Amino acid sequence: MIKVIVVDDSALMRKFLSEILSTDNDIKVINTARDGIDALEKIKIEKPDVITLDIEMPNMNGMETLKAIKKNYPKIQVVMISSLTTEHAQITIKALEFGAFDFIPKPSGRSIDINIKKSTEEIISKVKNANYSKSKIIIKNPIFALTKLEKKEEYSEKILKNNHLNKIIAIGISTGGPNAIMEVLPKLPQDLKACILIVQHMPAGFTKAFAERLNSVSKLYVKEAENNDVCSDGKVFLAPGNYHLKVRRQGVNLIIDIAQDDPVNRHRPSADVLFESVAKNYSRNTMGIIMTGMGSDGAKNIGMIKKFGGYTIGQDEKTSIVYGMPRVANELGNLDKVVSLYDIHKEIIDFTNK
Amino acid sequence: MNLDDLLKDFLEEAFEKIEIIDDNLLSLENEPNNEDYLNEIFRAAHTVKGSAGTMGYEDLCALMHSIENIFTLLKENKMDFSADINDFVLKAMDIVKVMLKNIESKGEEGVDAKEIKKQLKAIETRENKDSKKTVKKAKSTVKKEEKSVEQVKDVINTELFNIDITKIEKDILKQEFKQNKKLLYLKIVFSQNSAMPSVGRFIIIREIENNAKIIKSKPSIDILNSDDFIESGLFVVSVEGNIDSLKSKIFIPNEVEDIQILPFIIDDKEENISNENKSKSNIKSEIIEDEKDIVVNSDNLTKKESIQSLRVDSYKIDELLNLIGEQVINTSRYFRLENEFDKRLYEIKSLISSYSSDNLEFIKKLSQLLVDFKKLSEEFKETNLMTRRLNSEMQQNTMKIRMLPIDKVFKRFPRMIRDISRELGKKIELKIEGQDTELDKTVIEVLGDPLVHIIRNALDHGIETQEERIACGKSAEGHITLKAKHEGNYIFIEVIDDGKGLSREKILDKALQKGLIMEGMKDSLKDKEIFSLVFEPGFSTATSVTGLSGRGVGMDVVRKSMEKVNGTVEMESEQGKGTVVRIKLPLTMAIIQALLVSGLGQVYSIPLNSVEETVKLSKKDLFFVKGHKTINIRNNVISVISIEEIFRYPEKEREDYYIVILDYADKKVGLIVDKLYGEQEVVIKNLDSDLVITPGIAGANILGDGRVSLILDINKLIERINS
């Protein structure tokens, strides 16, 4: 039985989340709290497995609460409940760096029935995953010491003018992804001879904040992908939430193509879509990386990269928060190599230097 | 998941948060830099936005989002707070309230908030532009800013249709509504292609009049019939028949561009809000498909409001629970006593049957039994005492649950005074004291409107203009104090202003003119009596009629509503210095102290607050003045009436006269009864409306022996006697 405490200053949200979670037989909402202070008191006594945490609360807000929980009870998993404002998306991304397991966007839609239907599965699966990966603390130091890089603007001017493209690195990643990517990207050099394309399963509204955050901590130029962006060395494009990320040829250039085609594997963006597209358009100069995440999105089509002569690797079980996607890819025989999270950057650099 | 529960929680939370926002908005106006207020508002708006999103109310969610955005900018110092901005936000909050009420009654927002959202957006972008402006561009940006302010004003003038409904018109509308007619707004956009617009409009108006009753139009019918260029007209109408057929009849090709129809809602309580409702709703007529929807009127709304659940401080329930717990324990003692008694009785029985030779043993046993019985009897008495104490405490505590802080009423006034004083151009400071004072829920509900009226009077007629004040040597800023205090079994509410006060002469002249007093009485009246004339029906001191008060509804309405809850109202005033209106209300509604008397073989209860004293006189003490029985008490001549006369029975012959001297608004009347039983707390039960409503009977209560005692309504009685 997974013991959950719901923390939210809105009585309605407390009830909404509690009732949704209670529909699952493996989850028990043992208590609710109205702010951070209340939550910490209740955590002390009731020892929950997972906490859902609102961001905007009086007395002690979600971020402060998260820090306190992670400091005193590192084993308790926290799922953030975030609304879709720019400010909250930024806080949410920060929260992931500070050790929050994942987040759920606050439901909003045309009717309560639809909202319940939409949210139920997501909320329950995220709480379950959080509990499942309780023992896996891959972030050695939850409070990231990454500081904003100052000279970034000069660099990006140079990068932006450069249209030369050597290699394509395509990454497919899901649950536990933000922190894993944060582990990899900052270690890559500014003169990396490749363009990186990332499909991270994340709702619309948050990908932009995530891209901005990644940009601020890495030497590469990171942005949320837009139509007609040109792939060139030193750039990283993150698939926008609710859009597929693909590439197409335009003369000598490889151009970004984002589209709202039907979801694949119930995901949009889908890693399978990205892998297929890069394999067909850039064949053997492509590296496919499949990383932590539930399910099997990308596991099939990373094989196309391999088939077209590219190189494919998967994250190992030990460092994956959820060993789903890389496991399936490996079982299908679609991977050239299985590596630890901490070695992925080396694999990338080696590939680009070939 | 129980969606109804969720909806209830949502509404409760939303209303609560909106209150928080309203309060803080007003505080913010006084201290624009107080971050606490900004944060509170931001958080509350954020919560409502989130909940509305979850519940699927997208319009409300979007509106709250705009408000949240403005406060994000304010918080981040990207924009400065101003009364101007506050006006818009307050307006938006009013719409939010209407949306919530609609959600509560109809399950949907029912208001198109496009306009206000546009305005909020305009503020947002205008202010953002501000923050981005550089010194170089300063000049042009200022120009731009002016323009955008103008644009905002434009939006208000042309796109929001506002219509003022006067009191009389509202009464007409209510009457129409009672006759099951539908009340509608009709917005007609006249066609630009009309060959003769004024003739076209004449025909349109005639068609409306053929099918509906026009209660108000904007612009007026005269203007509509003139040759001026008029883009559109707004009508408030009542219709008996089908709305679609009305619409099709008015829709005259080449003359009418568009017709928008939406229900008109009469809302007494929140006039401002209903104004907003009227003006902001822009629903296309197609929405009104189900005609029944339209009949969901404010009567329904208010009814729903008054049966709404009661929010109770949890400690009050805890106290009550404790008492009930004690009572349960106490009751178990009765069981034990029952057993003990049974046992002793059995022993007595067997003792009696065993009575034989051994006298000494018998007596020993009997005396032991006597001792036991005495003990039991004492314990029984103690338990009984305990039960009585617990019962009375439980009763008191249950009464307390019905008590709400008067703040529920008071909190609407800061906003009201702010709005009105801005409108009147007077500067007024409001002070509130004793907002924690608790009052019965029923009283709280009745109190709102009268207080609004009193305060409006104070604002409109009491407080002078700044120039007048300075000329009198007063501070430019007027002061109004709203005070509540608890004294004995009563709550006193005072509205104190430091305005120009009441004029004795003006009141006397007016009273004379209205025939309320006679010429000769002028000099003999005391101040108190003169001021009480203000409460007489039809009296109004306002020489000018403004939109705010003095609309023909005088203080008599205030007095009437206070009487409904056993309250009284009086005035005190000193010319040039100010006025105090004092309301006295019983602490609780359901229980009153009463004097029990008998007459006509019945027991009657007289509310103690109207009993001055009781006297016992003999027949010789009675004398007649113009055929009326009177008595003389300490040189005061008081007319008396017997209880039989009240109920139109022949008067009984008596030797001793027990007379209850009743006091009501400084008039005294004696009531002759058969017997005086003494004081008692009585629980008021309302008489079923099926029962004959006899004037002079306020309700009934059940006596200790199960008999019913009628409660006399002294105010009505005295009115009857006087007439």
Main traits of this protein?
heterodimer; A: about 350 residues; alpha/beta; Rossmann fold; 2 domains; seven-stranded parallel sheet; 12 helices; elongated; B: about 725 residues; alpha+beta; Four Helix Bundle (Hemerythrin (Met), subunit A); Alpha-Beta Plaits; 5 domains; six-stranded mixed sheet; five-stranded mixed sheet; 24 helices; 22 strands
Largest sheet of chain A: 7 strands, parallel
- Number of DSSP helices of chain B? 24
| Largest sheet: spatial strand order of chain A | 8-9-7-6-12-13-14
Task: Provide the number of structural domains of chain B.
Answer: 5
- The chain-level mean pLDDT of chain B equals 76
Gross CATH architecture of the largest domain in chain B = 2-Layer Sandwich
The helical percent of chain B reads 40-55%
Unreliable segments of chain A (pLDDT under 50, ≥5 consecutive)?
A: 140-145
Output the radius of gyration of chain B.
33 Å
CATH homologous superfamily classification of the largest domain in chain B: Histidine kinase-like ATPase, C-terminal domain
Characterization of the model:
The complex is a heterodimer of chains A (354) and B (723). By secondary structure, chain A is of the alpha/beta class. Chain A has 2 domains: 2-132, 3-Layer(aba) Sandwich (Rossmann fold); 152-352, Rossmann fold, CATH 3.40.50.180. In chain A, 37% of the residues lie in helices and 22% in strands. In chain A, the strands form 3 sheets. A 7-stranded parallel sheet of chain A has the order 8-9-7-6-12-13-14, with helices on both faces. In chain A, helix 4 (86-97) crosses helix 8 (207-217). Chain B is of the alpha+beta class and 723 residues long. Chain B has 5 domains: 3-159, Four Helix Bundle (Hemerythrin (Met), subunit A), CATH 1.20.120.160; 167-306, Alpha-Beta Plaits; 314-401; 405-586, Heat Shock Protein 90, CATH 3.30.565.10; 591-722, OB fold (Dihydrolipoamide Acetyltransferase, E2P), CATH 2.40.50. Helices cover 50% and strands 21% of the residues of chain B. Chain B has 24 helices and 22 strands. Chain B has a 6-stranded mixed sheet. A 5-stranded mixed sheet of chain B has the order 6-8-9-11-10. In chain B, a hairpin with a 2-residue loop joins strand 15 and strand 16. In chain B, helix 3 runs parallel beside helix 5. Chain B is globular, with a radius of gyration of 33 Å. In chain B, 30% of the residues are buried. Residues 129-161, 268-308 and 543-552 of chain B have low confidence and may be disordered. Chains A and B meet through helix 1 and helix 5 of A and helix 1, helix 2 and helix 3 of B.
